[in-house]
Structure formats: C-alpha cells, structure tokens
C-alpha cells in the first residue's frame, strides 16, 4: 500500500488504447494530481522508477468461477465473494464478474442475493454477476453437471429479470437448445448481457438468437458448434456478427494460437474479442486439486481436468493470457492490453479508469512487468 504522494517515471502508460512513452504521473492520497510529458511533471513525494514496466488500468475479467481455494458455488456468500475478488486483485484484476457454473435453483438464488449484498456493502472489484447455466446444452456441457442442466421456465426468467434490476451487470450464458428467442429478447430488454455458449446450435440458429438480443459469446471455440466447411456453427456466427463480442481463454491449451490469430483477424466489428481467465478455485493459491460437485479437478502442467481429461476451467491469469497473445499469437501489445481492459469494460458499460483520466485513482491501476511475467496492484 502506498500512502501520501508518489510519482511514477521511467515506464510506459497505457490509456486503454495506446502505450504512451516519456510521460510521468503523480498521485496524492490516491488521487491523480499531475500527468504529462516527463519534463513537465516535478518529482512529488516518493519517486518510483518503473524501469520500463507498464502502468495501466487493472484488468476486467468477465468469467471468474473461483479463487483462493474456493468456488463461488461452494458457499455463495459475501465472504466468499470477498475472498475471490481479493485473490484476483493480487493477479491484477480490479473488476470482475464472479461466475456461477450450472447449479441448483437454490444455489443460484443464494448467489444472486449474495452478490447484491456484496455490491451493496462495497466489496471492491465486484462489477456484477455471471450465471453460466443451467440453461445450456447437454451435448456441449463440458465440465457442467448434466443432471442440473434444464430448460428455462417462466419462474427462472422472472428471477433473472428481478436480479437484473438489482445488479449493475448481469451476464447470463445460455444455449438455444434450452432457451427461446422470446426469453432472450425479454432478458436483453431488461439489460441482461445474454451470451451464447455451451451449445451445439447451428449458424442460422445462433444468428437468430443474436438478432433477438444476444450480444456475447462465452469462451470462443470451447464447448460450442465449430466452424466447418458447410456449417459455420457458433464460432462462425460469433466472428461474422459485428454486434457480438466474444470471450477467449488464451492459454494456448483451450485454443491453439493459430486459431486465435485467425479469429482475431476475422472478427467483425464493432464487437471485439476480449480475454477471460475462466479461473477456478486454484487461482491465487498453491492448490493442486479441488472438487466441483463431488468431482475432483486436477491441476497439472497448466491445465485443470476431470479424471477423464475433460478441461474444467482454466489455470490461467490474465497477465499470462496477454503474454500468450503477444508471444505466441503475434498480436500488438496495445491491442492485447485493450482486450483485457477496454473491450470487456465497454461490454458491461463499466467506466474504465486510466492514467490519462483526471479522476484516476491509484488503486485502480496495476503495474505490469515489461516481460509480461508479473503484475502488481498499486492500492
């Protein structure tokens, strides 16, 4: 924790779109008080030489299933949300959507209530809630419990609409197999970020659901109908529809770097590809395994898998994802930083605090090492 006045020099500032060289920035009592070309900013208070590191807005992660050794569904409470948010703050995430994987109606209700309470109590970092299921496709369930997957009923929809009215952001991942276009339209009209995922639906069906109001796709390529020569699937629909943005797990395990490169080049705008961690309980901990609904998930060689080898979330934090995107995919650092900050923030209408903003607070920034191997919070 830094107190009093501090000045940062000798690094690069990321403003949400560009990397800026030769600038300095000062803070007093956490609030920005000076910013500009290096020669124009005096040394105020403690002077920190960034040594070429990057100072920029904290990451925005829209898919965080757990952290600090626990899953959100294990004990949906303000304490659990606080622990998860704290664990990811240490990994550079200043805003996140805690994510509930397919669960019972009781756990879903408890999670919604806990998230509303956490936001009301001002728990740092909680930007809303992501419900990934239970209205998915069994054929593309991945690590989700097939016995809990079910169609969306009128009562389910009513509860989601009520939750949307009480939360700053509610993201819901659904599959056309278990949700109607009318239900999607109702959710979208209520401000819910409807995301297509865990589905085997064909291209035309996915485009129809996008026209009905779905504006997002959950972890592109994974647990969905693929891009084929005669049937483009959800992958093709996500890339073709400019009104839709899509999350991506960039660990070079869930998706091959060449597939990422192709998708990045093919994505129709203004929708964008953004990075997600799909982090599980092991995030921010040294745990080598955990349980997901009585099933053991093993952590080994940068992967999380069930006993049969099925991927179960990701052993990933966003600094590593950024490094994969730059070093293995070959994309510009500025664009990739935007995929971890600006793109997801804009999707959920979250004002992104950047060093260039007059209202910027030090606690909303992170320091990323120049070799993209470490990140540290500044508040």
Automatic annotation (TrEMBL):
<dbReference type="GO" id="GO:0006046">
    <property type="term" value="P:N-acetylglucosamine catabolic process"/>
</dbReference>
<feature type="binding site">
    <location>
        <position position="219"/>
    </location>
    <ligand>
        <name>Zn(2+)</name>
    </ligand>
</feature>
<keyword id="KW-0378">Hydrolase</keyword>
<dbReference type="GO" id="GO:0046872">
    <property type="term" value="F:metal ion binding"/>
</dbReference>
<comment type="similarity">
    <text>Belongs to the metallo-dependent hydrolases superfamily. NagA family.</text>
</comment>
<feature type="binding site">
    <location>
        <position position="132"/>
    </location>
    <ligand>
        <name>Zn(2+)</name>
    </ligand>
</feature>
<feature type="domain" description="Amidohydrolase-related">
    <location>
        <begin position="56"/>
        <end position="350"/>
    </location>
</feature>
<dbReference type="InterPro" id="IPR006680">
    <property type="entry name" value="Amidohydro-rel"/>
</dbReference>
<dbReference type="InterPro" id="IPR011059">
    <property type="entry name" value="Metal-dep_hydrolase_composite"/>
</dbReference>
<feature type="binding site">
    <location>
        <begin position="222"/>
        <end position="223"/>
    </location>
    <ligand>
        <name>substrate</name>
    </ligand>
</feature>
<dbReference type="Pfam" id="PF01979">
    <property type="entry name" value="Amidohydro_1"/>
</dbReference>
<keyword id="KW-0479">Metal-binding</keyword>
<feature type="binding site">
    <location>
        <position position="198"/>
    </location>
    <ligand>
        <name>Zn(2+)</name>
    </ligand>
</feature>
<feature type="binding site">
    <location>
        <position position="254"/>
    </location>
    <ligand>
        <name>substrate</name>
    </ligand>
</feature>
<dbReference type="GO" id="GO:0008448">
    <property type="term" value="F:N-acetylglucosamine-6-phosphate deacetylase activity"/>
</dbReference>
<feature type="binding site">
    <location>
        <begin position="311"/>
        <end position="313"/>
    </location>
    <ligand>
        <name>substrate</name>
    </ligand>
</feature>
<protein>
    <submittedName>
        <fullName>N-acetylglucosamine-6-phosphate deacetylase</fullName>
        <ecNumber>3.5.1.25</ecNumber>
    </submittedName>
</protein>
<feature type="binding site">
    <location>
        <position position="143"/>
    </location>
    <ligand>
        <name>substrate</name>
    </ligand>
</feature>
<dbReference type="InterPro" id="IPR032466">
    <property type="entry name" value="Metal_Hydrolase"/>
</dbReference>
<feature type="binding site">
    <location>
        <position position="230"/>
    </location>
    <ligand>
        <name>substrate</name>
    </ligand>
</feature>
<keyword id="KW-0119">Carbohydrate metabolism</keyword>
<dbReference type="InterPro" id="IPR003764">
    <property type="entry name" value="GlcNAc_6-P_deAcase"/>
</dbReference>
<feature type="active site" description="Proton donor/acceptor">
    <location>
        <position position="278"/>
    </location>
</feature>
């Amino acid at each position: 924790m830094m107190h009093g006045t501090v000045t940062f020099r000798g690094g690069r500032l990321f403003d949400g779109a560009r990397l800026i060289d030769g600038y300095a920035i000062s803070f007093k009592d956490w609030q920005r008080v000076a910013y500009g070309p290096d020669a124009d900013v005096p040394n105020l208070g403690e002077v920190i030489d960034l040594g070429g590191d990057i100072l920029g807005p904290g990451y925005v992660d829209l898919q965080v299933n757990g952290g600090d050794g626990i899953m959100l569904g294990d004990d949906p409470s303000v304490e659990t949300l606080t622990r998860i948010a704290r664990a990811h703050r240490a990994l550079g995430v200043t805003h996140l959507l805690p994510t509930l994987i397919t669960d019972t109606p009781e756990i879903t209700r408890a999670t919604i209530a806990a998230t509303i309470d956490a936001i009301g109590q001002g728990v740092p970092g909680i930007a809303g809630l992501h419900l990934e299921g239970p209205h998915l496709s069994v054929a593309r369930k991945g690590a989700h419990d097939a016995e809990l997957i079910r169609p969306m009923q009128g009562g389910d929809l009513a509860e989601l609409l009520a939750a949307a009215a009480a939360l700053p952001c509610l993201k819901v991942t659904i599959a056309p197999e278990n949700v109607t276009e009318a239900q999607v339209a109702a959710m979208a009209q209520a401000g819910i970020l409807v995301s297509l995922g865990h589905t085997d639906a064909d291209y035309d069906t996915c485009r129809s659901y996008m026209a009905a109001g779905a504006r997002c796709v959950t972890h592109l390529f994974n647990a969905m109908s693929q891009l084929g020569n005669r049937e483009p699937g959800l992958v093709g629909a996500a890339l073709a529809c400019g009104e839709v943005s899509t999350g991506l797990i960039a660990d070079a395990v869930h998706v091959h770097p060449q597939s990422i490169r192709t998708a990045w080049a093919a994505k129709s705008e203004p929708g964008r590809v953004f990075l997600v961690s799909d982090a599980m309980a092991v995030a921010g901990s040294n745990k080598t395994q955990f349980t997901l609904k009585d099933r053991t998930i093993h952590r080994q060689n940068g992967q999380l898998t069930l006993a049969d080898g099925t991927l179960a979330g990701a052993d990933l934090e966003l600094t590593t994802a950024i490094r994969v995107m730059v070093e293995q995919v070959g994309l510009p650092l500025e664009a990739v930083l935007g995929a971890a900050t600006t793109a997801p923030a804009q999707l959920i209408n979250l004002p992104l605090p950047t060093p260039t903003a007059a209202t910027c607070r030090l606690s909303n920034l992170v320091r990323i090492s120049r070799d993209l191997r470490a990140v540290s919070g500044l508040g």
